[in-house]
Amino acid sequence: MKSAFQPIVSASGALFGYEALLRIYCQDGLLLQTEPFFSTGFMPSSDRINLDRLARVIHLRNFARFVSDGALFLNMTPIAALDAGSQQYGYNSLISRVKELGLSNDRIYFEILEHTCANDRLLVSSLQDMQDYGFRIAIDDYGVDASSESRVRKVNPDIIKVDRSLLTDYMDGKPEELQAVISLAHELNAKVLTEGIESQNDFNTVRELGVDYMQGYYIGRPVLVSELPCLFEPII
User: Fold this and answer.
1) Residues 55, 135, 133, 35, Cα dihedral to 10°
2) Quick check: helix, strand or coil at residue 235?
3) Where does residue 31 rank: exposed (0-12), middle (13-18), buried (19+ CB within 10 A)?
4) How far apart are the first and last CA of the chain?
5) I need a labelling partner for 38 at 20 to 30 A (CA). Which of 51, 96, 117, 140 fits?
6) Where are the chain's structural domains?
7) Which residues partner with 192 through β-bridges?
8) Beta bridge mates, 43
């Protein structure tokens, strides 16, 4: 298991932070597909929760040691958020680890993945507790599966990360969904981060729409820790 970091920029093109992405390799050194390891049904819930915790520890340590600038975005499955909410030691351990690494809670964004959740009420309660501790919450891949207006309204996140598909629809003359999520974010006092920025045209389009943050291959590709030190060069 290794960390890769992908830059996130503000509308001005300045660095805002990085999303930590897990890369999983087999014993022969071949890169494996990550998503099946977190998908429902691939492994027992307890294993998925432990994998989520381990990835978080790896990312936090690598970020503190090799990156340290800006915000850190960490993916979290809803089932792991529920587990953290039911186990107080989970919060205490996380807070202690962040402090020990010299990071501050308000620089850590937990991205709640688009997976469905068996108990939305407990999920919302757990995420609110995390915000009370100073951590930030982002809804990942808005427009896909359970990352919907309903979840956003219940969670009231700090950032809504918009899936690339909404930008593609906008470019194809179907602007309603992208415009709607931007309006929703303004209503809830949340920021909008558009994913999948792959060209100068993408960048200019979302900036004109008033999007707050951007992420994608045009901004920068994910970089393994082993490929540091140069992670990001400003695009403007």
Assistant:
1) -30
2) coil
3) exposed
4) 33
5) 96
6) 2-227
7) 160
8) 40
Question: How far is residue 163's CA from residue 171's CA, in Å, rounded to a whole number?
Answer: 14
Looking at residue 155, its amino acid is V
Can you tell me the mean pLDDT for 89-96?
Answer: 74
Q: Which fold has domain 2-227?
A: TIM Barrel (3.20.20)
For the packed helices 164-171 and 176-188, what is the interaxial angle rounded to 10 degrees? 130
pLDDT tens-digit readout, 173-185: 999 999 999 999 9
Note whether 226 and 5 are within 8 A (CB). no
Model confidence pLDDT, tens digit, residues 174-218: 999 999 999 999 999 999 999 999 999 999 999 999 999 999 999
| Structural contact between residues 9 and 213, judged by C-beta atoms closer than 8 angstroms | yes
| Among 63-67, 80-84, 169-173, 201-205, the least confident range | 80-84
Lowest-confidence region among 6-10, 85-89, 126-130:
85-89
Please give the share of the chain, as a percent, with pLDDT higher than 70. 84
Q: How many residues does the chain have?
A: 236
Rounded to an integer, what distance in angstroms lies between the CA atom of residue 127 and that of residue 119?
A: 13
Phi/psi of residue 201, each to 5°? -65, -45
d(CA 20, CA 80): 17
- Short-list 138, 160, 136, 158, CA closest to 149: 160
Residue type, 30: L
Closest CA to 215 of 17, 79, 72: 17
The distance from CA 11 to its chain's CA centroid, rounded to whole angstroms, is: 18
By C-alpha distance, which of 202, 178, 208 is closest to 219?
202
Round to whole Å and give the CA distance between 195 and 212: 11
* Statement: the pTM of the whole predicted model exceeds 0.85: yes
